[in-house]
Design a protein that fits this description.
It contains ten helices and 35 strands. By secondary structure, the protein is of the alpha/beta class. Strands 30-29-28-27-26-35-32-31 form an eight-stranded parallel beta sheet. The chain has a six-stranded antiparallel beta sheet with strand order 3-2-4-10-7-8, with no helix packed on it. A five-stranded antiparallel beta sheet has the order 1-14-5-9-17. Strand 18 and strand 19 (about 260-270) form a beta hairpin. Helix 4 (about 360-370) packs parallel to helix 5 (about 385-395) and helix 9 (about 560-580) packs parallel to helix 10.
Length: about 625
Amino acid sequence: MTRWGAALDPGSVLQEYPRPQLVRDSYLNLNGYWEYAITDAGRNQPPADGTWDGRILVPFSPEAALSGVNRQLKPGQALWYRRTVRLPAGFAGERVLLHFGAVDSSCTVAVNGIPVGGHDGGYLPFSLDITDALASRSQPAGETGQEPTEHEIVVRVRDTSDTGYHSRGKQKLNRGGIWYTAQSGIWQTVWLESVPRTSISRLVLVPDLSSVTATILLSADASASASAGAGAVSDTDSDTGRAGTFAPPGLRAEITVSTAGRTVAQADAGPGRTVRIPVPDPHLWTPEDPFLYDLDIRLLSGDEEIDRVRSYTGLRTVGMGPDPQGHQRLLLNGAPYFHAGLLDQGYWPDGLYTAPSDEALAFDIGAAKELGFTMLRKHIKIEPLRWYYHCDRLGILVWQDLVNGGTTYRHSVVSAPAVGAPHRSDNAYLAFGRADAQGREEFRRELHGTVELLGSSPSIAVWVPFNEGWGQFDANALAQELRGLDPTRIIDHASGWHDQGGGDLKSVHVYFVPFRLRKAWQRGRRAVVLSEYGGYGLRIPGHTFNDREFGYRMFRSKRDLRRAYIRLHTRQIEPAVARGLAATVYTQLTDVEDEVNGLLTYDRAVLKIDAGTVKGLNGRLVRASGS
């Protein structure tokens, strides 16, 4: 249990506004206790009153201790949720949207007994227009002296976990080693929002060194788009009317850029049209100085304000280029910048995928910065949007993994290359667990959704579509597809092994042999990165998940671990950086379940190597790179 989990108030769970780059003054948080039941998957109607299994604390999965349930949802079962809500006086406007940050992995939703839609995929947010379902049972607050109407929300969830081809990350029903407890159901904030009939649904913000390019996308009459999509309105789906398809004529967006309440730039743009907004005397964003500009966007019809949202951006660029010695380096704002990174799994002993508090989310980022790291590789998981907001405001670069799927992984494909087995062509779909065309197409859709969701975050520098061959397929083609979606960021097309020669990085993982930078890797246009290494383990009694232990090299004392960590960096990593290694990702930030190879224990209570040592070694890497 973390200290944040121990202090958790069930009546006030993760109450912070969940969408920091599109803030509207309408928010009703639905986290807290819901009823739950686990039934046979064949059941399509919710349990009768009095037959539900008990209470679950949303948004913690039933497998997580903080949920209060501690039960594993199995592939042949359905997980049901139910709660009621009374809308505050004056809350409901022209439309009411029900938002889910993420539900693992497939769900349908009914409000007042009326189906309102659903969603497939466990990592992306979605919203449902529930206006008509609310109207079917409506008693406004204050009328005839009665209480406002009580509305019922019911959610049904299925999750096949690692028995199907759907994206699942590192979840495994038979957990152990590098594979973790499978979790299911609602795992991010659930909330209600009231919006105008024509509203701002998404902002696309692309910064550079002197301006920000903005595109304002609308959802006009969300009920029309909802019915077109069987009730589902994905928060990252531009083909459901969110790109201005239904927008009435005569609308314009007024965009104001400010800092500390002082306007520095302003521009108008038509819905769906891109406008470049020059920013005078630009203050650039870096991890050392994570300066953010505030944005205010007003949707106007003539002089009448239709909608208004707030956002932010940071002015910066990322890229690649040679240093004075001719080595390919990663660039930030046009200059070489060394990415000293940590592998960050985003797991919690008490909440699994869900951090017990917003403070806990920010803690991991702050801890990495205090140790001198400039980057986190968010490994095989998409976090709540507030995590990226904390990276933006605190200042740390992010390498964002896509979430792996596919069927059973073969040892010869995903593990043997770690000890020298050759790389393979990833068009061998069966060998890579990607024989199912539906699964490959689902991954492509989720790639598009991930870029749309996170693309405006200034901290994200690198996209990582595949890791160690887990469900990998057509990596070169997908890297090109990804570049078409986002030409402003770096692509690590295949992290670890099964390099297809594409993307921007030669990305290697080294755990079992000493690391040596090979000259062959440095031929050509790509930069060389050590995207996983280390994994040195130390078990700290009283701060472990169970009695098992996993690490790539185990130690028995903090003293021995510290000595080995110093030797690794001074003898292997630092010389390689001086010869052209462009980035490193040490495994890892925290222990996770059986893995005891974190710099921090799983409960975030113990730092295994003193901060001065780690920070000092990171400083040496930066200096060796010439950044």
